[in-house]
Automatic annotation (TrEMBL):
Gene this protein is translated from: LOC113518734
Protein name, UniProt field: Cell adhesion molecule DSCAML1-like isoform X1
Annotated transmembrane regions: none
PROSITE patterns: IG_LIKE
Subcellular location(s) per record: Membrane
Record domain Ig-like: where: 40-134
Entry membrane topology: Single-pass membrane protein
Keywords: Disulfide bond, Membrane, Signal, Transmembrane, Transmembrane helix
PANTHER family, per database record: BEAT PROTEIN, BEAT VI
Gene3D superfamilies referenced in this protein's UniProt entry, alphabetically: Immunoglobulins (2.60.40.10)
Signal peptide (UniProt feature, chain positions): 1-24
Originating organism: Galleria mellonella (Greater wax moth)
């Protein structure tokens, strides 16, 4: 086995020398959009660039997950040849030695695409490059938030759910508080064999700080974005996993007595949709909040004022 390898290596070296030390296929690269929308009339242009250094081209072959769907052989007439792709077709008028255009995209066309270039005789140098493409079926509606309470008191814990309709692939969900991204649920798939649409879901637990804490200088921050990775295969079967997938964030009570909460569903860079924002108000915004005192402190002050009033009232007749 080892000997065979050495012999192959020698032959390889010899061919290289015969070739004048020049490979006649260089800089092969593939350019495929990371994601495109599904639909009739939706298309994707996949490009393949290479440098044959003057050598003639023998063939270009395009594969979708190892199955050839387009071939370009300049020596043949016509040079283009297509093979069936599930549900879609190749636009012959816009496909040639440098690109292939696929029309009527559907999500079954998601997967790895390969471009294989072969130089002509005598050496037939061949090389191949691969890149993934995802055909996206976006959710029908905007994401939706439900929340345990729509007002807060200091020290409260609010629980919010963001849910997104079925889509392919399942979207990522980002939580936004007052224009700051605060947490994210990343959808990832263990395997990509079925092309099923899936709903996405994210749970956020918001802790509202007590007055004493934020006096110590804890400030609003989004520097370390809290992330969870949500595997849909495991999630579907094992509901106990849910607890580990709860995102947590701590909010400093805003001086305005209100903050907004929304979530955004995104699929790569071609789909992003935001929920209606929820405005969450402090339960009983009191003027005392300016001094940083909580409501119990305020009522104590009121009671004290009341006692003084009563004392004055009881003193009045004797005056
Ligand atoms: C092609 O490859 C050579 C080296 O092999 C490099 O110097 C050159 O910049 C490349 N050209 C392009 C367009 O990438
Ligand atoms: C969020 O979803 C979980 C799990 O489905 C549910 O138990 C909880 O009641 C929901 N909370 C809200 C505020 O909708
Ligand atoms: C979700 O986010 C992760 C990490 O940023 C990214 O790699 C992935 O492509 C995103 N998925 C989608 C469907 O946008």
């Amino acid at each position: 086995m080892f000997k065979m390898k050495r012999i192959c290596h020698l032959i390889f070296r010899l061919l290289f020398l015969l070739d004048g030390g020049v490979w006649s296929l260089r800089n092969l690269s593939i350019s495929v959009p990371r994601a495109v929308l599904a639909g009739e009339g939706q298309s994707a242009v996949l490009e393949c660039s290479y440098d044959l250094e003057g050598a003639p081209l023998y063939s270009i072959r395009w594969y979708k997950s190892e199955t050839e769907f387009y071939r370009y052989v300049p020596r043949e007439m016509p040079p283009s040849m297509v093979f069936p792709l599930p549900g879609a077709s190749v636009d012959l008028a816009q496909s040639d030695r440098n690109q292939v255009r696929i029309v009527n995209m559907n999500r079954r066309l998601s997967g790895d695409y390969q471009c294989e270039v072969s130089a002509d005789a005598p050496l037939f140098h061949t090389d191949i490059r691969s890149a993934p493409l995802t055909v996206v079926d976006p959710p029908f509606r905007a994401p939706h938030i439900s929340i345990s309470r729509d007002s807060y008191a200091r020290g409260d814990v609010l629980r919010a759910n963001c849910s997104v309709d079925e889509a392919y692939p399942a979207p990522n969900i980002t939580w936004i508080i007052d224009d700051h991204k605060v947490a994210e649920t990343i959808s990832w798939r263990a395997s990509d064999i079925d092309f099923k649409e899936r709903a996405a879901f994210s749970q956020l637990e918001i802790t509202i700080l007590e007055a004493e804490h934020y006096r110590m200088g804890i400030t609003y921050t989004s520097s370390n974005l809290n992330k969870v990775y949500h595997d849909h295969y495991i999630y579907d079967k094992d509901m106990n996993k849910e607890d580990r997938e709860i995102l947590r964030y701590t909010v400093v009570p805003p001086t305005s007595g209100q903050f907004s909460l929304s979530c955004v569903a995104t699929i790569y860079d071609i789909y992003a949709r935001k929920s209606e924002p929820l405005y969450i108000k402090e339960d009983a915004p009191l003027p005392a909040s300016v001094t940083g005192e909580d409501s119990s402190g305020v009522s104590a002050v009121c009671n004290a004022a009341l006692i003084v009033l009563c004392a004055c009232a009881s003193l009045l007749p004797s005056l």
